[in-house]
Amino acid sequence: AIFTVVNAVLLRPLGYGHPEGIAVLLHRGRNPVSPANYLDWRRLNSVFTDMGAAESWAPNLGDGGEALAEKVTAVRVAPRVLDFLEVPPLMGRLFLEGEDEPGREHEIVLGYGIWQRRFGGDNAVLGRTVRLNGDRYTVVGVMPPSFAFPPFWETGAELWAPLPLGPRKTSRTGSSLRVFARLKPAVSLAKASAQMAAITSRLEREYPGTNREVTVRSLHETVVRGVRPALLVLLGAVAFVLMIACANVAHMLLARASARQKEIAVRTALGASRSRVVRQLLTESVVLASLGGAGGWLLAWAGVRALVRLGPEIPRLATISLDGRVLAFTLVVSAVTGIAFGLVPALQVSRRDLTDSLRDGERGSTESGGQGRLRSILVGSELSLALVLTVGAGLMIRSFFALTSIDPGFDPHDLLTMEVSVAGTSQADPTRRGAFYTAALEKAAAVPGVESVSAINHIPIGGDIWGFPFQIEGRPDPKPGEIQTAAFRAAFPGYFRTMKIAIVRGREFTAADRLGSVEVVIVNQRLADLHWPGEDPIGKRLTLDTVGSAPAWRTVVGVARNAVRSDWTADPEEEVYIPYLQSRLYMEGPNWPVQYATFAVRTKGHPLRFAAAIRDAIGSIDRNVSVSEVATMEEIIARSNSRPRFYLLLLGSFAAVAVLLAALGIYGVISYSVARRFHEIGIRMALGAERGDLLRLVVGEGMRVAAAGTVAGLAGAFAVTRLMSSFLYGVRSTDPLTFAGVAVFLTAVAFAASWVPARRATRVDPLTALRHD
Question: Which of 47, 84, 19 is nearest to 187 (CA)?
Fold first, then answer.
């Protein structure tokens, strides 16, 4: 099941034509690009057959001329982007050259899912007109079910439309584009990177601060680089569990082979060669492993479904399936494990002295020293592997607790969030927008059980991050490329009270902070400490206008406590809050990205109980307004931590299985040893050995093996856990407390596993043992 995930996410080629030739160009490998830079790169390069850009879009979808309140995830693309993916549409066509020009009729290509969900899979959908944010669009194509683009960002896109750059073509700010390109034949990624480095260096000299740290990566690498280390660690953990199981089966087969020594000696005496005996025993072990592989294949169907259901937002997780590569992997692993746990017992038993085997087979005496040492090695290896896994799980547990103990700077309990968009409705009119949001907040506040309500452009954790340049009054103008930026928030009155974000100095926004009044701003503690250390920021002024323009100075009226932004584990960064009702961008902006607000609702009781009533209250003003992204803040935080929780669940499960198998291995070996030494124990007791002596003898045997396994395991864990560093938080990969705790725990497990058969040894009746043959 785990290999199926690795196969789908890391190994299987992306579902495009010749996917190895598709590259992604981004700032620092993750940040978007400005329109002017994209157009320059496209014009100046000679290593790509084509280059195109894509931009996120979230319009309200309507049908039949009536705006229906449903927000959809969409992507605007340059016309050639879908073409060079080399995936033909299921129906219709893709975009044509020039369809992104202003003034042209709008077209869209539907994804298979939305075609089925919204249009019932109607084959007559081509040519049909729908409304997106109130504008008319014509459906020109439908993509096949397996198509998903882009596969690393906006992975839930349900439709595609042409990307109109229009007047933005000359802009080197407002970066919002992801750039895709297809390499020319025989051009390597390294050569493309070298040329793009030369191009961006030249542009950086012409336009300082606009072309720094541009990376060129393959699309596949861009998709998987964030999850590859964790998935490989999980695959390694599964391999450890498999090796522990193999060791267990190996010493069980060794015991079984020892019991068959007389049979094997008779076969040898009758002329069977050693290779014939080994072949027979290996055949039995491979048959056993094959049966296990067949059972594992069947169980993997359920395992894969569980992984998809429990899995976080991992790229391509929804595409996993048991394909031919997984079947081949199962067959190979079955054969290799069959040989692995069968070969050593077969070699051990086949090389015993014929006369000794016949005599020992009659007397049932103790096993040879070689077999005993082999069992000790197998059990010690089990314990060492289990220790490595358990240390890994312990580090993940400590990391997860560190994640959950992070103070977000606000109270996430009893807090409901939802996005309210007026795009494409009459409420988007600048003369009505502010009045609508004010009325909607009042309606939501009147719902019984609502304690307080406010709104902001981007909610912490679940919202977007817009970085705006700012300049402090009285400071020298920054040099090109050194402009300071801060996260930009536009909030309604009562936002800090509703979120329970403390205002450590000054005041909150009020209803009087609107267009026409003195322009004000609230900064977070981080910004205040960096730019006014030891000073009172209240009354200081800053501007969010572009450097060089006539600045509109905003007066600082408050300092807010730092709140977690989009990255749960990142250190706080500078943030500025301005009154939503005082922002011309949000009150009058003509484009969809500024025609929404995210409501935050503090409730008395579980927030989702109030979602329908609040939605109805907002809809009573205008039913065409979209209300979407309804979620509790606790759900949003849980989603942000879904990957470490998923990794912890799997690694913890593997570690628990490993510890259980190791304990069973120790118990089995000690128990078998006691049974083989039944006669010896009787003699010791007849000669006066005390029960305590026998306990120390038997438990000591187990603890010596455990000590060796623990030392080897600690050394292995010290080396292996370094691979986990990238997805640990708040704990080092070599944390001594975790290492020591796991070592003590497994030593205790080994002691308990040795104690049970040791107690049984002390209850041996000497007379019965001495009569035992």
Answer: 47
